[in-house]
Structure formats: C-alpha cells, structure tokens
Amino acid sequence: MERLKSDPGIVNRIRANYIFSEMTDAELQLCLKHLEITAYAPGEIIFQQGAHASRFFIVCEGVVQLFRISPMGDKKVIDIVKTGDSFAEAVFFMGGNYPVHAMAVDRVKLAGIAFQDFNGCLANNIGLAFRMMGGMSRRIHGLVNEIDRLAMGTACQRLAFYLLEEARAERHGNASTIQLDAPKHVIASRIGVKPETLSRILSRLKEEGIVEESGHMLTVLDVEKLNAFGMENLKHY
Fold first, then answer.
1. 154-232 has which fold?
2. Is residue 216 within 8 Å of residue 207, measured between CB atoms?
3. Residue pLDDT, tens place only, 70-123
4. Worst-scoring range by mean pLDDT, 87-91, 123-127, 232-236?
5. pTM > 0.85: yes or no
6. Domain ranges for the chain
7. What is the pLDDT of residue 143?
8. CATH code, 2-150
C-alpha cells in the first residue's frame, strides 16, 4: 500500500459517486476532512474479512474484487468494483467489521472516507441524510435485481446478463465493445459458474457470431442476439 496526496481530479471522482452527488461543497468538505488516498499493487489485500471497519472507499482507478472464503476454503467473488464505484459503505450503517475480503485486481487507487467524518456530516443534516437514503435505495434495488438474475438463471443467462450490463454504458447502436477488467476466473466466480463453463459459453458466443474477443477487449456484435441467446438456453449448463 502506498499513501498518495489528494488532488481536484480525485475530489471530482468522489463527487460523481451516488453517495456524494447531492452534497454541497461545504458538506463534501466536511465528509472528506480525513480523506485518505492509497494505491495498491495487483493482488494486494485492501482489507480482510473480519477486520475492524473505519472507512468506506471510492475506486478512483482500477478494479477491486470483493470475496469471501467458505469454511471449505472455496473462494466466492461477491462483487467486482470498478472506477467510480464505492464499496464497504453498508458497513457504516451496520457497524462492526468488514464482512468480506477486498483485493486489488490491477493497479488500484482508492479514496478512503472515514466513518467519523461521514457520521458527523449526516448527524447535523437530516435533509442530506434523506437525500442520501434515496440514492442508496435505488442502488439496493438494482443490486437485488442483479442477485435475482444471477441466482435464478442458467449459466448462459448469467453470462449473457453480465455482458449486457457491461455493454450498456458503451453501447453504440446494436453493438458494443467492453473491457474485461477482471480475469475470467474472477468473472466466473462472480456469476456463479466454473471457469471452464464460462470458456465454453464464450466459445459458443464467438462461433455464433454474437461476440468477438481480442485480448482483454470483448465486442458484442449484436446485443439483441446476446439477449436472445440467454433466453434460448434456459436449460443448458
């Protein structure tokens, strides 16, 4: 871990996050009183499951994976957090310890917001607390829908849904090019399939002319066909 200095670009990145988007400059300044900027190398642990929680984080650069280890020693990726996203904010409301491990997938730069500053900002501003609750409610609603789709769908549906979600922001017409920010085995764990299953489904998608792959870049050639692919393979894998 390397400690870095803050700069206007990092503050702008924080403000763009849904947690801070409704804040005034004064409110944001109070929340960032003890802002901590840190950098992590690929594979470096940011915090461990069970560690005392005192901050939540905004990803300024890179990708972070959140995961748990089962009693049998199996690793399950809970989420893949990308630039602009936040993580561990729910611990602020629950208190206690971090419920997952957090690890840098690549070179990562994080903005750590101290719980004590965040609490002070909300405790003195009920209006801000309600505005923030609205943003968090929308975020939770989206996550619940995602969990439903990943838990109830087949492997084909899960991968199709994951790629469609990734492609949504970069969509141009009926095609979209996305970057696979995390290794395929991490993506496989995130959607609840085996790495070899993910590879087989990707091969089928390429054979059927739905996607093309080049290094870490994946081009969805036809978004509508990708959606249909998931629906047509309800009982496969």
1. Arc Repressor Mutant, subunit A (1.10.10)
2. no
3. 888 888 898 899 999 999 988 887 778 999 999 999 999 999 999 999 888 888
4. 232-236
5. no
6. 2-150, 154-232
7. 65
8. 2.60.120.10
